[in-house]
Amino acid sequence: MAEPLFVLVDSAVVGHLGTAELAGLSLASTILVTLVGLCVFLAYATTAAVARRVGAGSTREALQSGVDGLWLAVGLGIALAALLVAVAPWAITTMGGTDEVARHAVVYLRWSALGLPGMLLVLASTGVLRGLQDTRTPLYVAAGGAVLNAILNVVLVYGAGLGIAGSGIGTAVAQTIMGVVLVVVVVRGARRHGASLRPAAGGIWGNAVAGAPLFVRTLSLRLAILLTVFVATGLGDVTLAGYQVVQAVWGLAAFALDALAIAAQALVGHGLGSGDVPRVRAVLRRTLRWGVAAGAVIGVVMAAGGWWFALLFTSDPEVRTAVALGMAVCGLLLPMAGWVFVLDGVLIGAGDGRFLAWAGMITLVVYAPVALAVRAWAPDGAAGLAWLWLAFAGVFMASRALTTGLRARGERWMVTGR
């Protein structure tokens, strides 16, 4: 939940600077979250690989794979940060940003990009710890990072008078500190079990190849989100600003539900590594029940509390109305999302990345014409935002629920052994 918490805090702090700043944050944070999301294979593939090796009794090999993942993460992070700083104006313009909104977006994007190496190290090291079934350490670091990010944002944005740049700087600093702390934990474990800390070209390449299908799967998700932001941009500043708030809350809820998917990843990987198929089926049933139930509870809170959430983020009455209506739509559809997130986790834990890649692209093809129809025909403001979220949280998520649900009913994904 670290990255959506950062976006949520940034949205709350920046939202009171003005609608243009909040709209700029929407564009910039979408690009940042997209890049981080595309690299989530650093966590997902590592979790599955480490869990399988631990289940098969090879802890040293598991940690060696994790160390190679850390090297891959830091290399990718530095390259992506440099690229993003260089192309920030072009990226914002391509997303539809203009005038004052674009100026604020570029400032935030460039400062926040400096935290990308730290954030990718967070992903890779968290994947290692999840595979070892240590979920407490990432929890403590994520909570500490969220608190630090909130403090830095308020101090730099308002105390130091840096405006939206202060929000980007605060986020980058918090992400870097989180990455360092988690890397230290993984390195200590690797030393304790005799794993080498040197980068191994074969191991780094192996991590990259193993993560390729999950990269494609995540690419389909992020393209869908980018398309959603493109539609919101075309419906006006009020819709775009409202989308940013609803997306921040949706992201937090999604990653909270994804905690069940992470548990499923580790338990399914461990179960398949040890050849315990009945246990894998039991994990599937139980996490699905929890996913739908948790989605229903969180959904009620979102739908009923939309107006109150809006007060925290903006003083613009039009944006508040859009947020309240958008949150109501999301809340109603969140139980289905809980089902989808859990199935994703189960199949990722089983190493079924190739199917998820194909399924992701199919769902994107289904969603694209619906989203473009909203841009063409939906009205501006609150009604447009409601239609947009109905398309994304309804049509897109339903397509994912159907494809992953049919896959989970069969047995082709349950491959046992290391």
Account of the protein in words:
This protein is mostly helical and 418 residues long. It has one domain. Helix 3 packs across helix 9 and helix 10 runs antiparallel to helix 11. It is globular.
Per the principal axes of the C-alpha atoms, what is the gross shape? globular
| Poorly predicted spans | none
What is the N-to-C succession of helices and strands? HHHHHHHHHHHHHHH
In total, the number of strands is: 0
Radius of gyration: 21 Å
Treating each run of at least 4 consecutive H or I residues as one helix, how many helices?
Answer: 15
Residue fraction in strands: under 5%
Largest sheet descriptor: none
Fold blueprint:
Elements: H1 2-15, H2 19-38, H3 41-55, H4 59-94, H5 99-113, H6 116-131, H7 136-159, H8 164-192, H9 201-234, H10 237-273, H11 277-304, H12 306-313, H13 317-349, H14 353-377, H15 381-409
Question: How would you summarize this macromolecular structure in one to three sentences?
Answer:
With 418 residues, this protein is mainly alpha-helical. The protein has 15 helices and no strands.
List keywords for this structure.
single chain; 418 residues; mainly alpha; 15 helices; globular
